[in-house]
Amino acid sequence: xxxxxxxxxxxxxxxxxxxxxxxxxxxxxxxxxxxxxxxxxxxxxxxxxxxxxxxxxxxxxxxxxxxxxxxxxxxxxxxxxxxxxxxxxxxxxxxxxxxxxxxxxxxxxxxxxxxxxxxxxxxxxxxxxxxxxxxxxxxxxxxxxxxxxxxxxxxxxxxxxxxxxxxxxxxxxxxxxxxxxxxxxx
Length: 186
Hints:
This protein has helices spanning 13-30, 95-98, 171-174, 179-182, and strands at 33-37, 47-51, 61-71, 84-87, 103-111, 117-122, 130-131, 136-137, 144-147, 150-151, 157-158, 161-164. With 186 residues, it is α+β, with helices and mostly antiparallel strands. The chain has a 5-stranded mixed beta sheet. A 3-stranded antiparallel beta sheet has the order 4-12-9, with no helix packed on it.
């Protein structure tokens, strides 16, 4: 499906992000969803999807956020696995908007000389990791992580963020979120 050298044609982050969004839209369409493109990306939503239906019953709409990361292992070294982060409270995207089943987070991982890997999770999948209502963190072994805002020793605060972990430790857990497997649960 992909030219082995596709990454050579994506020279900057804007091109990589646009490619990731287009790839995510194609994946949703191939899996029986309608895709609605937005004019502006000022609400932390890249596009909206809805599963096609043959009945008159309304189908739920899902807000979709796509993040794309490039990975190129160094020669002679084992794979390091950078994570994808989405800052909480970054503009209009707030944890209260994100931590629900109608919010979908697509992670596109562009890998040098390999086909991209695409992962999908609902915002509610982070609920078992961090409960925004009680502000309590439950220790769960997962590749999805939420780090709430913390006060640093100097009195400043670190930003809260959502994360997909790609480390080798999380490889077996990531399989649960591979797009073609996970999309069937929506």
